[in-house]
Amino acid sequence: MTSEDNMNSSRRFDSYNEAFTKNFITFVLVFTIICINGAFVYTYFKSKDFQRDPRYVLYIHLVINDMIMLTLSLGLVIATYTGNPGFIPCCIMLVVLITTNRNSPLNLAGMALERYIAVCLPLHHVQICTVQRAHLLIALIWLVSFIPAFTDIIIILITQTLSVFSKTVFCNASLVFNTPYHETLSLVVEVLMFSFVFLTVVLTYLNVLLAARGVSGVGRASMRNARNTILLHGVQLVLCLLSFIAPFINLFLVSNWPHKRTDIFFSTFVFTNILPRLLSPLIYGLRDKNIRKHFCFKGCRTVEEKMKVRPRRTSKPAIH
């Protein structure tokens, strides 16, 4: 079940005012996140230094990927209240949405590996971590995430008649990809993917932690920064996992408070799918001094310059 499924499920139970309020809140949150992420994207493409660093190449891919996912999620949420798309447009949107949703954890694993190589293999970092290889890694991430999503379409072609493609459909993954084959495929892919990402983040963190014990001075500070960065990747991974455990949270809450069904679905949608996409770039982006420096307004720089040139006070000579 994907992020928009919960909202789709509540369509028939909401009044007009409730539906309008929830769509308005969703739109404001998504629009705000896209604006913030857009500022990061603008900063990246404005600086040639960022574009030459594979670390920032992977980071900006994560930001753009989240922007695509949020835009599609918002579109599908609004579509559930305004009308159902055709089967083919629905399948296309779901394939892209599922692909981008799975891109995020894989991208985090790539960023953790880059930090591990930079700290534990500094002499080989320049040769191993290049911009071209970062682009190849991004292409590989999209391929790995796209293949299972496209396989969902292949399963439909095998198990359904071709007439299904001419129908109007209630567009959510649990209804479109509803065969036992889809459920098995989704479970296997998610378990394998997140097991791989989890092990990658944990192992890189432990290796950096062990390497930091034998280093002192400036090198130790660099190790500590890398360790904290990888730890933040772990936090981001947990945030990504929230969208996958949302159905279980809904099942527990709805079974205890069935009269709050639509409110529960909306709340879990916001807290497990939208807000993590706001925290993730802020946690990683604003703690980076290079990115933070570009976000400082001109007034900030002016104040700093005045502070530097401001003359020191001198005490007046005493009059005897």
UniProtKB/TrEMBL annotation:
> Which InterPro entries does the protein's record reference?
GPCR1_Superfamily_Member, GPCR_Rhodpsn, GPCR_Rhodpsn_7TM
Does Transport count among this protein's keywords? no
Concerning Pfam families, the annotation shows: 7tm_1
Instruction: Classify the main location.
Output: membrane
Q: Name one GO cellular component term.
A: membrane
The record places domain G-protein coupled receptors family 1 profile at: 36-284
Q: What is this protein called?
A: Odorant receptor 131-2-like
**Organism of this sequence:** Gymnodraco acuticeps (Antarctic dragonfish)
Q: What is the primary gene name for this protein?
A: LOC117562359
